[in-house]
Amino acid sequence: MNKLTWLLKWVLKAAIFFTLFAFALNNQQEITVHFFFGTQWKTSLVIVVLAVFACGLMVGILGMVPRWWQHRRVAMKAKKTHTSL
């Protein structure tokens, strides 16, 4: 059973990889991203999509950090009171 689970995980990882690889190959067109003050960036579409995805991940993680710290602080406080009992 354990080997079957391991095999299914690798098949799923391979499927995700090849799907993303096909996406990258299908989006090779060169585009121009216009920023402020006339600044331009010329690159392929897949680079822009992946960069925006990475920025979204970073914003989401940074948005969750204060809540993680709060939960960690509460857990440490609960652990401290539990060990003192």
What are its keywords?
85 residues, two-stranded antiparallel sheet, 2 strands, single chain, flat, mainly alpha
Describe this entry's structure for a reader.
With 85 residues, this protein is mostly helical. It has one domain (2-84). The chain is 76% helix and 12% strand. The chain contains two helices and two strands; from the N terminus they run H-E-E-H. A two-stranded antiparallel sheet has the order 1-2. A hairpin with a 5-residue loop joins strand 1 and strand 2. The protein is flat and about 65 Å long. The two termini are 43 Å apart. 0% of the residues are buried. The mean pLDDT is 88.
Q: Any idea what the radius of gyration is?
A: 22 Å
Number of strand segments: 2
Structural class: mainly alpha
Q: Order of helices and strands, N to C?
A: HEEH
Give the count of helical stretches.
2
Side-by-side strand order of the widest sheet: 1-2
Number of domains: 1
User: How widely separated are the two ends?
Assistant: 43 Å
C-alpha geometry:
flat
Low-confidence stretches: none
Q: What percent of residues are in strands?
A: 5-15%
Q: In this structure, how is the largest beta sheet organized?
A: 2 strands, antiparallel
What's the helical proportion of residues? over 70%
Q: Tell me, rounded to a whole number, the average pLDDT.
A: 88
